[in-house]
Prior knowledge:
The chain is an alpha/beta fold. It has two domains: about 5-75 and about 370-415, Urease, subunit C, domain 1 (Roll); about 80-360, Metal-dependent hydrolases (TIM Barrel), CATH 3.20.20.140. It is about 35% helix and about 20% strand. The strands form two sheets. Strands 1, 2, 3, 4, 5, 14, 15 and 16 form an eight-stranded mixed beta sheet that branches. It has an eight-stranded parallel beta sheet with strand order 6-7-8-9-10-11-12-13. Helix 5 packs across helix 6 (about 155-175). The chain starts with a strand and ends with a strand. The structure holds N-(iminomethyl)-L-glutamic acid and fe (iii) ion.
Amino acid sequence: MNKNMIIKNASEVVTCSGFKAKQGKDMQNIGVIEKGAIVIENGIIKDVGDSKAILERVNEKDYEVIDASNKAVLPGFVDSHTHFIFGGYRAEEFSWRLRGDSYMSIMERGGGIVNTVKSTREASLDELIAFGKERLDSMFQFGVTTVEGKSGYGLDYNTEMKQLKAMDELDKNHPVDIVKTFLGAHAVPAEYKGRTEEYVDFIIKDVLPKVKDSAEFCDVFCEKNVFSIEQSRKILNSAKALGMNIKLHADEIVALGGAELAAELGAVSADHLLQCSDKGIKDMAESGVVATLLPCTAFSLKENYARGRKMIDNGCAVALATDFNPGSCFTNSIPLLIALACIHMNLTIEEVITALTINGAAALKKEDTIGSIDIGKKADIVILKYLSYKFLPYNAGVNIVEKVIKNGELVWNKSNR
Ligand code: NIG
Ligand code: FE
């Protein structure tokens, strides 16, 4: 297999160039090169620029050549917040929500996350891997080349580890790269019902020290009637002391001050933020916490969207992710996400692309190696069916990704199907 590749004559190479999160107005800068080309060697981007100039510098015979005439080329998308490893489904609960039950009322009745905990505990490692593979295949076809995956459906040491191991296996055997997050504080399991403080202590003393090398991030569902600000601070400080990066589910249903806590603790990202306060927005902008917004969840929960427009106008770095999970948001659709962010959150398509590439990478602390088409980065690249990135929201809800290149290899090619 030829390890070297040239993508030439692209009507647009949307570079998203940069090695750090883009905040505020900078999110508009996506660095488009018209009639562009990319040179890839051994899975790494070696050159990018004007197609004619690049073709004069190289010998095409030494490369696999993709002619991207009339096609837009972008960095692979980074889905920086998902819960894609789980057993069972909750379609029944979704039907209750459609009839008016709230997400939290179902959780309080013993449904919700603990329902999935039961089926995830029952699932074998191989089953989790098989489900995970199917889900990754579908994400990859949407152009996702890196995905974050959380534990949090075990809530005991063995099952949390089983989820993390499933992700390890998939990371080794599937083209999509996986960044693992430990989310032991996702809910209080049935065996600790009414004893949240004891469960927090169990996570801190018995689980965190044993999982610290198995996940890059520690996350907490900081929410009214789940884990309080104080409990979240305790868990996240312990994770930090063990050398883990931190992020949190913040201000999703109630404005508890999760965004402010993320800024105080130096979290890499604060996620959801549907109810985030003005102070939370200011704190995130000042501290550089990536505000990760999950519009497919707001859509599925029939909630108002996070104030992404205001966040960007106030200088935040916004990332967008699917939050794919069996409860609040059973969709991994990047086309739906793009449509909602543009049409309902009033983000520009340029901001949305930044949020799905370099800012998604920054939400995972991977902005040095992925998230843009820059020399030295991994050649994770998406080629669209159409000549401009502007076709992305225009094709609302429709997948227009035609080719996906991972580490410099053409792995998905729709026109071959
Ligand atoms: O991000 N809000 C908490 N956690 C997930 C939902 C998990 C579930 O319902 O299974 C979320 O929306
Ligand atoms: Fe989530």
